Amino acid sequence: MDHVGLARMMMDEIHAAGGIVSVIYKDFDTGGTPFQFAPDYVVPSGDLAKIAILLAALCRVADGEMTLDKCVIVPNLWINYDSVAFERGQMSYSIDELLSWMIVANEDTAANVLIEILGLPYINQCCQRFGLANTRVECRLGQTKVQDDLRLNLTTAQDMLTFFEGLYRNTLLPRPLCEYAGRLFLRHRCHNGFTRYISDDIYTGRLVSDRETVNHEVGVFYLRYVDYFLAICNSDPVSTPETRLASQRMRARIANAVYNYYLEREDAIRTQPYQQNAPYGENRY
Fold first, then answer.
1. How far apart are CA 124 and CA 56, in angstroms?
2. 262: number of CA atoms within 13 Å, CB side?
3. Which of 8, 47, 116, 256 has the highest count of CB atoms within 10 angstroms of its CB?
4. How far, in Å, CA of 59 to CA of 265, rounded?
């Protein structure tokens, strides 16, 4: 499939999807953005709010105001009823453990504890400071009957690109913290979207939000010769198990098509003489 065919396929998927869809993908090798559709459309962030919380926590670490090994007590009152990682009850956790549970296992309890520690104003200040212009965190995650977090916490696909490219190029924070964050996303456990139809053993640093009317996925694909970012945000007011499954499959089809496009590109690159100092894969984890 050439790039024109890939773009046409992506537009077909967008038009066939329910609700509102925004998509952007960027080639980190060339620096080009081959495809984007409504990347600045503001959507409920769902679990992507955890990226803003992670950024704020690492800002505190970078400024010397907090350490990753600092421990805090997580009381029973703060533990969500559906939590798995925290179901053992009140215990002490380090900031490193809270960040790991929040990103790797998508734990709302860890996110809410970090909100208590950092404060919403500070989280939003960090978003503005680092160019996440339309990203806001205004309430806790998953603890209200009306799901305020699906109405008040906001972001855009473009903001997600800004964050992940900053990590990738080690410009967002000091390099050790960028690499630390990159490793967290590599360990993310959900595989019902981007990697659903990819059988190859590949590295992807991602975060998924599959909750109620919010079905998003963002992250970086680390291939042998090419690294690229992909974000697909899908907000659908009609929320049923069928619509959520349809969104997962839509994300998977687009991600698989982009992956196969770059796989063909890699095959072409392999025919060229190997260059020891080629820029590919500078930021491997």
1. 8
2. 24
3. 47
4. 37
123 vs 57, 119, 141, 155, CA distance in Å?
Answer: 8, 6, 14, 13
User: Residue 126: which of 141, 136, 116 has the closest Cα?
Assistant: 136
Assess contact for 171 and 235: CB atoms under 8 A: no
Reported as type and span, the H/E element at residue 92 is strand 91-94
Q: Report all structural domains of the chain as residue ranges with CATH numbers, in order of start.
A: 1-41+188-268 (3.30.450), 45-155 (3.40.710.10)
Distance, CA of 248 to chain centre: 15
Let me know: does 266 contact 225? Beta carbons within 8 Å. Answer: yes
The predicted-structure confidence for 86-137, as pLDDT tens digits, reads as follows 998 899 999 999 999 999 999 999 999 999 999 999 999 999 999 999 999 9
How far is the C-alpha of 152 from the C-alpha of 139, rounded, in Å? 7
Alpha helices in 79-217 (DSSP H): 95-104, 108-118, 120-129, 149-152, 157-168, 175-186
| Kind of pairing between the strands at 71-74 and 20-27 | unpaired
Q: What is the dihedral of CA 54, 204, 187, 185, to 10 degrees?
A: 0
The answer to whether 237 and 43 have CB atoms below 8 angstroms apart is no
Question: Which residues make beta-bridge pairs with 24?
Answer: 36, 231
pTM: 0.90
List, for residues 207-238, the tens digit of each pLDDT value.
Answer: 999 988 899 999 999 998 889 999 999 998 88
